[in-house]
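[step 3/7] fold_predict: job queued, chain A
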Amino acid sequence: MRVNEFFSLLESYAGSDARISDDQRSVTYQDLLHAVEQLAQTFHADGIKRLGLLVDNSVDWLIIDLAALRAGITIVPLPLFFSPTQRDNAIADAELDALAYSPSQIQRLPRIPLAHEAAKITYTSGSTGTPKGVCLAAEHLLSTVAAIREALPANASTCHLALLPLAVLLENIAGCWLALSYGADVHLPSMKTLGYTSSHQIQQEVFFHQLRTLAPQSLILTPALAELIVTGVENGQLDPRPFRFLAVGGAAVPTSLLTRAKRAQIPLYQGYGLSECGSVVCLNTPRLQRLGSVGKVLNHQKLKVENGQLYTRGAYMLGYLHGEQQPDRATWQATGDLGSIDADGYVYVDGRLSNLLITSFGRNISPEWLETLAQPYNEWQQFMVLGDGRERLCALITPSANTTAAQIDKALVHLNQQLPDYARISGWLKTSEPFSTDNDLLTHNKRFRRKAILKTYDQAIQQFYGEKHDLFSDVM
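[step 4/7] structure written:
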């Protein structure tokens, strides 16, 4: 799908009753497109080449985003959850010549950048905390929209609610742009209105109230949000009947959560993607789904497995910003993810290659495998596996409120009974505080910053492995 084709599709909904709304206003597709055209002309007249977008979820965010696409300039969404240092680094790194706070508030920066061929540069926080710019072409992003449209039934959604920041590529492309391509109602409440008190904390009742009021048919979810919704339905706080397609991804999803969703009649579908691939690569759908898998590869991509690692070929990024060499999109690109593909074409992701633990006995263990199995347990809030180069594995655990050490020991015994002997957890260490973005021990999509965590707890870990006894020898 090309840019003109995308806008022609949106124009076909100009006479419909569908609306795009936020906390302050509601506009028709005709109103939206008129505002987009006017702002695109302003971008041209002002000679803007690289525009930073620093706005909360809103109709304004969408107008600025689409106007940049229409004008053919590069836009750089800046997540509000970035720290001031991360934000300033991204602004300098992207060589922005303007910052948008609203369609009428554009701040020019004292910089004369060259035009960039990327339509969008998305910054990923990664595991190190240093944002890295992924450069993406417009046709690439729109090919992702087209591929998802082809995989889903025509009635997948007529009402989408953005629960993630629009600066997150997955919500931007697979959530908002996809919903627009259907001519759906699109709700864009602010993060505060949704109940977020930080990037990793949410007020449950405020969140549920928005879901009950807006009754969305489609949502993009992290595993944590999916867990919250499933629990809400199980407890009678949410009605699952309006839901048609809830996509979950961004981190490992326990099979037990998907099973609970199915039992509660929640249409929850796991997917998989990379920013470098324009967000979604694989997706379970109402027509084709297999529990535990991330679905089948979409038609704009190809996948293969080599030495246990997933490789992709097809729609791919233009490169990393300031990267020395542009990737050849005709060749296979390593994803860094461990996985497999079954005989029917369903894809399974087992963890990150870079996180692989190799025990002193030569056993290769993906920590995400064990951490995913540990997620359903109520005894802990966070559970991280370590033990690279060691005889036995250990877990760093943030206990749940009012949970005793004896209860955690008992839960670990139960967990170990599900595991082969070489992968069992031999003991655990209590964290001094939860891993979070505030202490730089979590990425903004809730993944562990493993190197930082290991450095923070190095003394306790060394002391643990200095002990010779095995806390759970009865199940080893």
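[step 5/7] annotate
DSSP finds 14 helices and 27 strands in the chain.
The longest helix spans residues 29-46.
exit 0
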